[in-house]
């Protein structure tokens, strides 16, 4: 039994040392630079920050038309594109800015 364990340990040691082929030495530097640039862009994204999260119209008479504009700023590092806006009530019709909203 001891010989079997010793043989398995020796086999494992040889197997693991044979796998040490230094993959880092095989890295193409130009591809590494391209990957770094790609990864840097992945960290750039838009952030939508609202001045207020909700608005209360108070008491509204039937048939009265009320309107409110939610102001927001793109505080991120990339252009923001609003592709859709939904309301929780069928009596509300949202509109939004078309096109890209630059940071700031």
Observed structural traits:
104 residues; two-stranded antiparallel sheet; 30% helix; alpha+beta; two-stranded antiparallel ribbon
Explain this structure:
This protein has 104 residues and is an alpha+beta fold. Helix content is 30%, strand content 10%. It has a domain at 45-53 and 68-104. The chain has helices at residues 2-18, 29-42, and strands at residues 48-50, 72-74, 80-81, 100-101. The longest helix has 17 residues, at 2-18. It starts with a helix and ends with a strand.
Secondary-structure blueprint:
Elements: H1 2-18, H2 29-42, E1 48-50, E2 72-74, E3 80-81, E4 100-101
Antiparallel strand pairs: 1-2, 3-4
Protein name: DUF1573 domain-containing protein
Signal peptide: 1-23
Keywords: Signal
Short description, anyone?
Residues 1-23 form the signal peptide. The protein has 104 residues and is of the alpha+beta class.
* Strand segment count: 4
The structural class is: alpha+beta
Strand order, biggest sheet?
A: 1-2
Q: Indicate the radius of gyration in whole angstroms.
A: 30 Å
Range of helix content? 25-40%
| Gross geometry | elongated
Number of helices in the DSSP assignment? 2
What order do the SSEs take from the amino end to the carboxyl end, as H and E? HHEEEE
- Strand fraction band? 5-15%
- End-to-end separation: 72 Å
Largest sheet: 2 strands, antiparallel
Stretches where pLDDT is under 50 for at least 5 consecutive residues are: none
- What number is the mean pLDDT? 84
């Amino acid at each position: 039994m001891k010989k079997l364990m010793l043989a398995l340990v020796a086999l494992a040691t040889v197997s693991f040392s044979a796998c040490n082929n230094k993959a880092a030495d095989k890295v193409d530097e130009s591809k590494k630079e391209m990957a770094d640039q790609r990864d840097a862009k992945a960290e750039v994204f838009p952030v939508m920050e609202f001045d207020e999260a909700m608005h209360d119209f108070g008491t509204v008479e039937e048939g009265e038309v009320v309107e409110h504009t939610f102001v927001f700023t793109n505080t991120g590092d990339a252009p923001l594109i609003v592709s859709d806006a939904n309301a929780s009530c069928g009596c509300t019709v949202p509109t939004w800015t078309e096109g890209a909203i630059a940071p700031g």
